[in-house]
Amino acid sequence: MGEARTDKAMVEPKSLASQVMLNLVYVSIWIGLSGTVILYNKWILAYYGFPYPIALTIWHMTFSSALAFAVVRLGYVEACNMSAETYVKAVVPIGACFAGTLWLGNAAYLYLSVSFIQMLKALMPVAVFIVGCVLGTESYDQNTMANMLVVSAGVAIASYGEINFVVIGVMLQMISICTESTRLTLVQILLQSRGLKLNPVTTLYYIAPCSAGFLLVPFALLEAKVLFNDPQVNYDVFTFLSNAAAAFALNMAVFLLIGKTSALTMNIAGVVKDWLLIGLSVFLFHSAVTSINLGGYMVAFLGVCWYNYRKLQNMKKNQAEKEAAKNALDDDDITKPLKNGQNGLSKA
Length: 348
Prior knowledge:
- The chain is mostly helical and 348 residues long.
- It has 11 helices and no strands.
- Helix 2 packs across helix 9 (237-260), helix 3 (84-108) packs antiparallel against helix 7 (167-191) and helix 4 packs antiparallel against helix 10 (263-285).
- The protein is globular.
- It is 83% helix and 0% strand.
């Protein structure tokens, strides 16, 4: 008996260590792919000679749609049963938001440095909280609101210290953050409430074609004529194929990370990724970063860390309450037969 317990005690830390190492692998893959896509997109749009963010985003969505379609049709992944009504009411709004997020986020690279964009992205928890309160997925809390104000103040300070502050670039990134926070909230409301669980491939299978369709409208109005008449535009097959493949792999990694760990893990990993991208932006593109930039972002960074910590504590509290309730029900199930037996004996 003693030896069995010792063996079990030794196995549990090993399995825990293995899970931690596996999670680190997932996080590392996501950070690597995310950084690659961001820096690759910045290079293509701002330095390579292809300043057409809508066209680039359509290419990404078309490539992802084709790969997802092939995987599903070949039988490697099974598509879920989705009615036309569900597609229109649930997938189409999410696809529209996804299209806006990618287009506007890519367009911001034409005006702003990667480092400053990462600082602005610290506002994502603020946007998700506000949209969640409006749409009913989040409950208003004064402590959380104060936390969001700290993050916002930090981003405002970082913006004040930005040397290459371009209003249109900031506006594009802000709208991109709004569409992304709306998309994340709509996923909860429209998909999860209907019991639809999409894996990485089926998510792209349904949403990517829809997003590409939405992007055709601004492409026709804003970029098509200029792009087709641009004699200096670069079309290198390897560059665009590798860029689209990296974007597809990133989408897979996002859902893999959330599926194998949690959305909270992704948020925490995102903080690490942002610092790495700020450093790489300075190293690769010689982006100017001032002390005010870094000071403001540090305030926002600490605010985001505190938000994630509070969220983790709430998750632990909710989990403990669920386990306590479950244990109480189990105890009740055990004691009921005993009580019934005692009552029977008393009557006898």
